[in-house]
Design goal:
30% strand, 119 residues, alpha/beta, Macrophage Migration Inhibitory Factor, elongated, 26% helix
Length: 119
């Protein structure tokens, strides 16, 4: 734990692997997680509709799943940190209305199961 999923529209010239690494590094720096426990993935969407206007629009949505029990302040720190990394990750395209957002969700400790097989 945590699990991070970045979903983004295909009209963003995103270097997803590099962005995920930067986010993982930033999350590890907080001290809230062990480096090896941070698992990230990116999903690119080719079919996207944003609003109703034909304007050039794009989005990136990051969802961070963490175990329940952290304060609102910690969750806010995590979401703001991830957003800052995303904003600084690249020069976002001119003329494209880009929406960036981050949400932090909790998973119940009582129902989360994990096995780590390191051979």
């Amino acid at each position: 734990m945590p699990h991070l999923t970045v979903e983004y529209s295909s009209n963003l010239p995103l270097q997803a692997r590099e962005l995920l690494l930067q986010i993982n590094e930033s999350l590890a720096e907080t001290g809230h997680f062990k480096e090896i426990d941070i698992k990230s993935r990116a999903i690119r969407f080719d079919e996207v509709v944003i609003g109703t206007e034909p304007a050039a629009r794009a989005f990136l949505h990051a969802r961070l799943l963490i175990l329940k029990g952290r304060s609102t302040e910690v969750k806010r720190e995590l979401s703001e940190r991830v957003l800052a990394v995303i904003q600084a990750a690249q020069a976002w395209p001119q003329g494209l209305d880009v929406q960036l957002c981050v949400e932090v969700l909790e998973i119940d400790k009582e129902t989360y199961a994990k096995a780590h097989l390191a051979n």
